[in-house]
Design a protein that fits this description.
2 domains, eight-stranded parallel beta barrel, four-stranded antiparallel β-sheet, Beta-galactosidase, GH, Ig-like_fold, signal, hydrolase activity, hydrolyzing O-glycosyl compounds
């Protein structure tokens, strides 16, 4: 069977022990008290599933984190985070786990697995899963990573690869995933295995059932479509345990675009509201099957814009979505909250208005915002080129060129914006700061000169 449930291994359980929604299983542990490995189990049957750490129920309240602030995550009420690889380029896997343990967090540790699709950035792309020697070499590389980290007390589970189904055609990838999962269960009896999937569907579930039965649970990654998660799970025919390992802002592939193809990003307050509604309706509503989730991203990254997916600004300030998650995790309103952003206009128009300017034309821009705690606000505006270095699947992107001298008095709520002399696609950004390490943000794409419509 696909999941290695404790019920199946030990025989009949009392229903309350297996069902995470039962009163006896409603608590949520912190990290294991011992310095040895925690015993982590997926328990359950057709009535419900739960994750247990050293015998105590553990519902994942977490975030995706690679270079982010571990201590801040704990302070905001989370109990776990996930990684994408054992060595993120700045810290080793052991250093990551040590830091998590010191903060009272547990880690779903990612194992970097080669992708069949072409891509850029870290990892191996264009991998041939019919190459038996390469597959065997990957298995041995992963074995060494597992052996090094398997006994750490902050380890929660192993994540075998990230979105290996994205842009892939060869189902043999799941044979390789199964081989890795079987290897892990041989050398590490204490931690479950999963694999992170881009979405879920009947064919994908059937491939994994047939080819990767060693996995203990599945992990799903969805953005705006997470609002349809219950139906997606039902349509896929999956009745086993799940974790949602990426969810958050509406994806850049899911939003309206300008006639020249620029995606229109929600402002930070719209995002925060969506984080709250999506968590309640898609994740908390199915605690019998979903063992918790990791919101994306506890940090900052450049993907289409520098604000699209990160919950922090590049300068370190927290956005409103962090306060939303703190309230959801702790059921308490944060002591100080981020500014609310009501509207941003360029030449009296909004992001959906396909704004076209002449080279060198000067027009007004304004932001309307407020602070729920009455903190004084300050502003920063900038113009950048539209992103041209487009990635797939979260691969690395370069930071678009800043256009200096485009904003008159860039620290005011109302400014004058002078369009660049060079025709092309650009984006106006505004950031609102409360002086308490919180910020709001929004941007408006615009085009200088004529453009070719994109179908």
């Amino acid at each position: 069977m696909l999941f290695r449930s404790c019920c199946a291994l030990l025989g009949l359980f009392a229903l309350a022990a297996c069902n995470p929604s039962a009163p006896e299983a409603s608590g949520e542990t912190a990290v294991a008290a011992t310095e040895g490995p925690a015993k982590v189990e997926v328990r359950g049957d057709s009535t419900g599933y739960g994750l247990f750490v050293d015998g105590e129920p553990f519902y994942i309240k977490g975030a995706g984190l690679e270079f982010g602030d571990v201590e801040a995550l704990a302070a905001h009420g989370a109990n776990s985070f996930r990684t994408w690889r054992t060595d993120n380029g700045e810290a080793t896997g052991k250093e990551v786990l040590d830091r998590a343990h010191a903060a009272g967090l547990m880690v779903t540790m990612g194992l970097e697995i080669a992708r069949e699709r072409e891509g850029q950035g870290r990892g191996v792309f264009g991998f041939d899963y019919d190459d038996e020697e390469a597959v065997a070499a990957q298995l041995e590389r992963v074995r060494a990573e597992v052996m090094e980290l398997k006994d750490h007390p902050a380890l929660l589970m192993w994540g075998i690869g990230n979105e290996l189904n994205l842009g892939a055609d060869n189902p043999a990838v799941w044979d390789a995933v199964n081989g890795i999962s079987e290897m892990i269960h041989e050398v590490d009896p204490n931690h479950p295995t999963t694999t992170m999937l881009a979405g879920i569907g009947p064919e994908l579930v059937e491939d994994i059932r047939e080819r990767a039965p060693s996995l203990d649970l599945l992990s799903i990654q969805m953005y705006a479509d997470i609002e349809n998660l219950p139906q997606r799970i039902a349509d896929a025919g999956w009745d086993g345990p799940l974790v949602i390992t990426e969810w958050g802002a509406t994806g850049h592939w899911e939003v309206p675009t300008t006639p020249w193809g620029a995606p229109i990003e929600n402002n930070s307050s719209v995002k925060a509201d969506l984080y709250g509604s999506r968590y309640r309706t898609a994740i908390l509503s199915n605690r019998e099957q979903i063992l918790g989730s990791y919101v994306f991203l506890w940090g900052q990254k450049q993907e289409r814009t520098d604000t699209w997916y990160g919950m922090f600004l590049a300068s370190g300030e927290e956005t409103e979505s962090i306060g939303t998650m703190e309230e959801l995790w702790t059921e308490k309103v944060p002591a100080n909250r981020a500014p609310r952003l009501d509207a941003v206009t360029l030449d009296g128009r909004g992001a959906l208005d396909a704004i076209q300017l002449d080279p060198g034309q000067t027009v007004p821009a304004a932001v309307s915002s407020s602070d729920p705690d009455g903190d004084g606000l300050r502003y920063r505006w900038e113009v950048r080129e539209e992103q041209k270095d487009l990635s797939e699947g979260g691969d690395d992107e370069s930071v678009p060129q800043l256009i200096p001298g485009s904003i008159d008095a860039p620290e005011a709520a109302e400014v004058a914006v002078t369009a660049p002399e060079t025709p092309g696609a650009y984006r106006l950004f505004v950031y609102v700061f409360d002086g308490q390490n919180h910020a709001a943000h929004a941007n408006i794409p615009f085009h200088v000169g004529d453009y070719e419509p994109v179908d």
